[in-house]
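Q: Structure for this?
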Amino acid sequence: MEKINLDEMKDLILNYVTKEYIDDEDEVITYDTPLISSGYVDSFSMVSLLVFLENKFKIKIPPSKATPEAFDSVNSIVLLVNQYLK
Amino acid sequence: MSYSDKTRNLYQAQLGDIRNAGIYKEERFIHSSQAADIEVEYPSGSDRMNVINMCANNYLGLSSHPEVIKAAHDGLEKRGYGMSSVRFICGTQDIHRELEKKVTEFLGTEDTILFPSCMDANAGVFEAILTSEDIMISDRLVHASIIDGMRLCSAQHDTFKHSNMEHLEEKLLLHSDKRIKLVITDGVFSMDGDIARLDEIVRLCEKYDAMVLVDDSHSTGFIGRTGRGTHELYNVVGKIDIITTTFGKALGGASGGCVSGRKEIVDMCRQRARPYLFSNTIAPVIVSGVLKVFEILSSSTERRDKLEKNTAYWRKGLSDAGFILKEGESPIVPVMLFNAKLSQDFSKDLYNEGIYAIGFFFPVVPNGQARIRTQISAGHEMHHLDKALSAFIKTGKKYEILGLSKEQIVAKFGL
C-alpha cells in the first residue's frame, strides 16, 4: 500500500473505532482511551477491527498477536500494525 | 490440608474487592411461595415484611398456580422424583418426549430438545452445530448465557450494534465467505425490555443465506397475539431456525429450557450438546408442571392479555408521574435513575414502602445507566399496581426527580 504516516494511521484507526464501537455521540475517545479493559469493545467484537486493519493496511496479523492487550488503545493498535507493515 | 491460609487469604481479598466495589450480591429470603404478594426476610435475620413483588420473571403468574401445582403432584406420584441418568442411557420418560412435542407445536418449529436450563441450552447449542469454518454474529446486548455458549464454540464471532440492522447487514457482507453464518439475538432484551426486529433480521438472513437464533426466554408464553413469542409478534413463525427458551420464567418458573428449531439442528444437539449428554434432564415433577402450563396457555390467551393490560397501565402510570422509562412494549419496564447509588437508595426506600424492586447498575448494565428494573405479571391485580405506583411516586418526590430529564438527574446525582 502507499506510504502512510503515523498520524494518519492513528486517525484512520480512531475514526474506525469511534464509528464501529461508540454508540453515544457525546462519548469522545482518544488515542490512549482503554478500549477493551474499559468495556467500549468486547472481545467478540475485536474480529471486525482485525479484519479492518488487515484489509486497510494489507497486512496479516497472526491470531496469537491479536490479543485484548494489543487492541486496548489506538496507540497500542498502531504499534501492533507497525510490526507487520513492510 | 490443601486449602492453605495463603489460598484462603487470596479469596478473602477478592471478596473484599467485590464488597468495596459495592457489587457484592446478597440473597433475600422469601418465606412464601412465588407470587405478587410475598413475605421477605431482608437483611438476613431481620423481621419478615409483606411486600409486592415487582421484579420476578413470573410474567403469567403461573409459578404457584393451583392447576400447575396439582399437575406437578400427580407427576411426582406417577413418574417419581428423579431419573438418576442422562437422557440417552435411561433418563428419558414418555413425558419428556411429550413435552418436546408440545413445545414444538406451541412454537411452530420442526423439533425440540430439552435441557436442564436455557443457560445449558445456550451453552450447548453453538458448539454442537458450528465449527471454525463458521461465524456467529450476535447483537451486542445478548444475554450472558449466549456469550458463554459462544465462548465454548470454535466458530469465529463478531457482533452488531444493538438492534442496528444496517450494521448487521455490514457484518453479513463482511463475513459472506464463511460456511455457515448464524445471527444471534435475544427476542426481548432482559435489561432494557425492548424487542428485536425479527422481521428485519429474517429478511437480511434470507438475503445473505444466514441462519437465525433467537433466545426467547423473556417472550415465550406472552409476546405475540397468542403468546408464541417474538416470532409470532413479527409474523415470522417457521422462519426462525433456532429458538432457545426457558421454563424458568413465564412457563411456571421452576427450571429447564430447550432448543427448538430445524430438525437436523435439534438432532445435532442430541448427538453433541454437552449439557444434554453429561447432565440429567428436567425432573419428571417439573415436566408434568410445564405440560400443564402449555395446556393452560393453549386453551386461552386470558393471562397474556391481562399481562398486556397490566403493562400498559404500569407504563402509563410511571410515565405520567414523570419517570424516565426505557421505551418498549414488553412487561420489563426499566425506570431510569442513571446514578448507581441512587438506584440502590431508591430500591431500599421502595422496600420500606412494601415494594420489592431491585436496582441494577454497572457492570450488569452499562456505566451511567443505573435503573430499577420492574417486571409486570398477570398475577398483579390493580391494587398491587396502584400501591406500587404510589410508592414509586412518593420515593420519586423524596429525591425530587419527577419530571426531570436525564441531564438534570445526572447533574443532581452524578453518573
